[in-house]
Amino acid sequence: MTYNQALRFEKYFKNKEYDTRIKNRTKPAKKYDFNGKSLGVFNPDDIVRILPSEERYRNRIKVIHENEIVYVNPYYVHGTGKAFGASEELYIRVPDLVRGGETETIKFRNLEASYSVFRSKGQLIDSIIAGLTINPRIHPEILKGFHALISNPDKNYVWSADVEQKHINEVGRKLSELLTGVAAFDGLLEGFKKPKKFCVPLQENTPLIDALIDGKGISSKYGSGAASSFLSNVFEPMRATPKPKCALRDLEDHYLSHQKHMVYNYGLKRLLGLNHDPGFIYDCALKGIVSPLLDETVAKIREVCPDNDILDNLPATITSFFCRAIAQSINNCEVSKQLIMTYFQKNPIYQVNLDDLAWSNGIIKMRVNPLNNLRFYLRRGKFHLTSTRGERGILTYELHRIP
Fold first, then answer.
1. Spatial CB neighbours of 266, under 8 Å, sequence gap ≥ 6
2. pLDDT tens, 372-399?
3. Helix 121-133 crosses helix 165-185 at what angle (to 10 degrees)?
4. Which residues have C-beta within 8 Å of that of residue 147, sequence separation ≥ 6?
5. What is the pTM of this model?
6. Is 188 left (phi over 0), alpha (psi -120 to 50) or beta?
7. Those residues with Cβ within 8 angstroms of residue 253's Cβ, 6 or more apart along the chain or in another chain
8. SS3 of residue 194 by DSSP
9. Per-residue pLDDT tens for 45-74?
10. Sign of torsion, CA 196 201 206 211?
11. Ramachandran bin of 277, using left for φ above 0, alpha for ψ from -120 to 50, beta for the remaining angles
12. pLDDT digits (tens, 9 = 90+) for 250-267
């Protein structure tokens, strides 16, 4: 076990007990019995319960999966607080809600994935209800409310006092993409005819889209929604596209496969004129390693950065400084923004927002925004200013409606 593996075990798994998920890695996570015998594999996003233990067994941790005690390499397991998000308590997974569809492999934007396909409103609703029913954390009043809302979407339904507001919001966030399908089958989705097929990816966090309506990509948001990863959803897929000289190509010129190292590579060379190893400087900032090269990096930032909130907290704010600079560069480059919007529009894609205030008041109200009516905006991720890792994504983007 390496030093970093030991630290991770101490921080997230030693003598801990909580629910979490299996990560989506290139290879599936294997599960074992106590003697090391293979019992098969987990599916990505399977829910497991970490069981308290003083040490690892054969470099594995003990978990409960589907009422069975098994062992898994912690490399495949989300640490506490990361699997569901800070506000999630109901553990609703969209793949559990779409098991009633037919499985098809569909290609969208050169990415093949497995989808659950629905051909009628009834088939979709039955699948959602079945998935909610088997979830022991779903209060009966939530099911009652869902039935009432889909039966009379324009009529105010008063949520039971037994359902907390945070759970109403959580259900809305998780069901928003599926309610898009319900509205489409009802003919209530602006700009769409009643579809022949409504398709939902079986793997959560599929880049850019949450669903397909007759081949048109749908990105669903509850309210204004969370910002999306720029590097994974936009930058990486666009790298193969030839570009004129612009801020986006400038970032590509500093490409490294490790996203944070790439941000540091750009920051060190492009912003500070230093040729230091980006991985080394990142590790120094992350682990508090004393180094003359880190000191030189901090000194250079002090020469060019006007923000006191960055300067007062160096070197912990190096990641924030580099990310702010990249976001500002691309936001100020019309060529880059046009290239990004052109990329979005290669295949039909729509952003659909479920009105969170209306949902809280017992009404299903959805707004459709074609991408040609939206403006791209890049920002530093919503991680803490002094976070070197950038836990919530280091660069995120939003699509704002043009007034």
1. 250, 251, 254, 322, 326
2. 667 888 988 877 888 888 766 789 888 7
3. 160
4. 129
5. 0.65
6. alpha
7. none
8. coil
9. 777 888 888 777 778 888 888 778 899 998
10. positive
11. beta
12. 999 999 988 899 999 999
